[in-house]
Model the fold of this input.
Amino acid sequence: MRLSEADSHALSGASPVPDYLHDGTTVMSWLNTRDHKRVGVMFLVSVIVFFFVGGLFALLIRFKLLQPGPFFMDALSYNRMFTLHGVVMIFLFLIPAIPSAFGNFVLPLMLGARDVAFPRLNLFSYYLYLTGAAVALWGMIHGGADTGWTFYTPYSSTTPTQVAPILLGAFILGFSSILTGLNFIVTVHTLRAPGLGWMKMPLFVWSAYATSVIQILATPVLAITLLIVTVERIGGFGLFDPARGGDPVLFQHMFWFYSHPAVYIMILPAMGVISECVCAFSRKNPFGYKAIAFSSLGIAFVGFFTWGHHLFVAGQSVFVGGAFGLLSMFVGIFTAIKVFNWVGTMYRGAISFKTPFAYICGFLYFIVFGGMTGVALATTSLDIHWHDTYFVVAHFHFIMVGASVMAFLAALHYWFPKMFGKVYHEGWGLVAASLIILGFNATFIPQFLLGNFGMPRRYYQYPEHFQALNVASTAGATLLGFGFLLIVIYLGIALKWGSRSTESNPWGSKGFEWLTASPPPTHNFDEIPTITQMPHDYRTHEPSGVIRVA
Amino acid sequence: MSHEAEAGLPPGILGHHFSSLARQNEAARLGMWLFLATEILLFAGLFTGYAVYRFQFPEAFAECSRHLELTLGTVNTVVLITSSLTVALAIHFARTNRPRAAAACLVITILFALAFLGIKAVEYTAHFHEKSLPGKYYAFEEVKIPGAAMFFSLYFLMTGLHALHVIAGMIVLGFNCWHTLHGRYSSRYYTGLELGGMYWHLVDMVWIFLYPLLYLI
Done:
């Protein structure tokens, strides 16, 4: 069957082997695919859709906050809005965004493999994602939840809103994330091309590997925690209910044991993208390859011992608070190592200021600013002032939206020609990047100030003297929204009417994923390449330092 | 594909993206070990809860533990450990090309699993009758100290989640049994069966920890 399709396309196309997009074009050929590239594209489309759903919730929240008093929606709807914004953005966008979409697409290509280790499991992971999303959406439509995405007990086990389906949705999404992580680890261990030793792996692979370790070890703990809250709601088991001798703070410990490392599930792959793009657009070998690679593992490791910094005001002892604060600062050290090496890579490089590079600059600024405020928040004495204020909101949006979304957009533009063989309009790309970086600052810098002045997060109303900064923040959010819409428009145009990229490597990148055609054929490589050099070796003019087996 | 036929394997075993069966087996085993790690961490949440509340209510936990059916619990432990032996034997017979013996061992394993669930059901029924139930449903006359309801919450959560894993394991072994009878496993290839066995051993291992924590304190 596949052969006949291949033949028919061989007649129309120049290349004798059809690329993965044209190897079967029916809907079923997508829904029943085993191809990691198609699974990646399906994930990409889904996460972008949910990004806009979550963004819509955010805009509604910001619209309400234009006025200090009751306005536009009632308090319960407002509570639902910020819960849904958090749930959608974290579980449906940020966690799968880079690993499941871009990771699925490029990781096997970077390793010189024909697919991930378990292609069927990979597709199953996508369907788990859809199922989890459907269950959570069902809960959102039928009443939503008003607990915040953190589901703190005992409120989450007593509120009359529809928490159970959303918990169940997050539970299922967790297994999707686990299976992707499992697949990546096994792929990295068993499917590296000949000659591709661990110390030659592209830096994106290192960060995806570190991410997968977190996904595997932390997510099951979230799964059991959400399960306990669910039985608590349905059966009154009382594990987190003080009225029955339970301890609500135990919930916080178990929840953050997953959810703090989950922050690194969101940022580590972003760091991997930046490591790739920085080399490609500076045309320079990575500066401090080992330092970047091992700092990824360092973040993954130390990330498991920082959860207590969410509990500084939850009755934790001063000693434990101090220990968790100190451990949290290690993350800052590993991140600083990376930032230093990225800047070192740029230094005296031949920089081409394309759209992905604009996002790299945005990323560096956001991660330094967001990271520094993070170190400040890890200091117990300062945190008591800032805890549960907009300062914290601004801090984690700098990392998650600022840094992670910058990297997501950098990846989207950098790998767009790889994935679809089309080129987008560079001018519009730079315009959108400027809008987004500007809009982002306008949204969240006022929130730092608001938090420092003492405006608590998640409150429906606020004192009148906070209004000016809130209006500024909403204006920034609107700008941000326009920036994202612009990207969808010009990328959509590029997909539909854009000119086919004349060369298969328009950036002249020497990352291993560019060794094969763009878009790649179904089985990636005609022959598995033998790797002889480092990724992104720009010292020679040889094509990426690879010889093919005769 | 052709490299499957070269290795003399039945179709549908060797994936196109693996260079050799040995490589694929290595990947499958590593994948299973990682999956088992996630299972352990899933139970770890409950073990953490158990540790916290046992330190908070030591007397209630000891008292409630004495009201569990120690004999039934012990019999169940023996049943489950024996079933681990039979599944190991099944793998041994499969790799020495005796599929009928292997299938028989798998059937025995599944029967042991059923026996385990049956005994567990007897225990659960007794709990329902004496109302030693979790959380808000707790109305057991014989133990009325604080923390008793918490013990039974944990008891039902832990044994309940374990029982779900026993059921999942029976389904996995059922598939393995079907494949064994249809000649999929031989000395050339038996990894699929081995993975089922690994999962079953984990189910067994979890019980080995649950038994002393719940019955022997």
User: Anything to note?
Assistant: The radius of gyration of chain A is 23 Å.
